[in-house]
Amino acid sequence: MIESMLVLSTGNLTEATCNRWLPECDYPAYEKSEYGWFVYVVEPDYDLPADLLACMALARDRHCCWIMFDRDAPPAAELPSYDW
Fold first, then answer.
1. Which class for 52: exposed (0-12), middle (13-18), buried (19 or more C-beta within 10 A)?
2. Cross-strand bridge partners of residue 22
3. How do strand 36-40 and strand 5-9 relate by DSSP bridges?
4. Which residues pair with 30 in a beta bridge?
5. pLDDT in tens, 12-52
6. How would you write the chain as a 3-class SS string?
7. How many Cβ atoms sit within 10 Å of the Cβ of residue 48?
8. CB–CB of 66/40 below 8 Å?
9. Domain residues of the chain, as ranges?
10. Structure pTM?
């Protein structure tokens, strides 16, 4: 099976979500070396940070099952970006 993956910048997440929430969550999120994450896209009824929910909404609109957050990816214009 092949799954689609949306590539977003870590700058589309707040520093708190990226560096504190994701490492501690019991949710399908996996570190991508030192500078990113692979995050499974779920339905919007999960209790997730607002910035992550917005990223997942974009991923669902594009029919993607995963998001790869990478520090070198450009921020998505459709989403807020955070300078940290």
1. buried
2. none
3. unpaired
4. 38
5. 999 999 999 999 988 899 999 888 999 999 887 778 999 99
6. CCCCEEEEEHHHCCHHHHHHHHHHCCCCEEECCCCEEEEECCCCCCCCCHHHHHHHHHHHHCCCCEEEEECCCCCCCCCCCCCC
7. 19
8. yes
9. 5-70
10. 0.91
